[in-house]
Amino acid sequence: MLAAMPSSPTSATEILRLAAFSDDPRGGNPAGVVLDATGLDDPAMLEIAARLGYSETAFVVGGDGAGSLEVRYFSPEAEVPFCGHATIATGVALGNGDHLLRTKSGDVPVRVRDGKATLTSVAPSVRVIGGDDLAEALTLLRWREDELDPALPSRIAYAGAHHLILAAATRERLAELEYDFDGLKAFMLRLDLTTLDLVWREHETRFAARNPFPVGGVVEDPATGAAAASFGAYLRELGAVSPPVRVTVVQGEDMGRPSLIEVDVDDTRSEIAVTGTAVAVG
After folding, report:
1. What pLDDT does 11 receive?
2. Which is the most buried residue in 181, 250, 255, 272, by most CB within 10 A?
3. What domains are defined for the chain?
4. Residue 233 and residue 159 in contact, taking contact as beta carbons nearer than 8 Å
5. Crossing angle of helices 131-141/181-191, nearest 10°?
6. CA distances from 175 to 54, 76, 229 (A)
7. Which helix (H) or strand (E) holds 89?
8. Partner residues linked to 259 by β-bridges
9. What was the pLDDT predicted at 282?
């Protein structure tokens, strides 16, 4: 049974709460899901997202009756074009089957089998970040350039939303996260970034990640499916993995909300597949 909570402004609106990328409600990234948001306008959806306080809430605002659904995503402060963990949560809430979610970033197929959902991203892209912008990001994070992994150069990657990927040279560097919240938020808004994807390579196909999300009013995201999809495209672009390959991203451990994200990087198509479980939050 999925947990529902009463809402304001519309008491009849059913809001499901699920933790994505975990099978334990104490882990993963909580998301709100409204499977019928047809009567809600933008201020109402933003209010619900703000009341929940999760990094994102997904709203199904329409459908064609044949498995195609229009979905919008709101953080506590603003609408975002795409959200991976809320998509996984929405898929699990919809139940077993093949669903097509029409998002502001494009169409995202979601396949659900026995509580596990796989989304297929929109076509990704990867680009170099300018030297001055990189220096500013490091300053705001309070990182030094010599703390970066030279084998994984910084890039801005996209698979539905833009993320700046920065690879730490050590797990200790990744474990320490104390940044200029307002300054980083302004920087990210200027570059149209949704999160910063801070990663550390544990071994060839396993990475630890942390994702500051000040543009959504959230200090840190415990599991970021959109960033994981972008990261898969980044690894392929750099030749850092040999497709076809499954990459595991472990996120949220430093927050006490461990999350597991599976990223499939193919060699026959550009889109990236991201897989995870979701469980109801009591």
Report:
1. 56
2. 272
3. 4-118 (3.10.310.10), 125-275 (3.10.310.10)
4. yes
5. 150
6. 22, 26, 22
7. helix 84-94
8. 251
9. 78
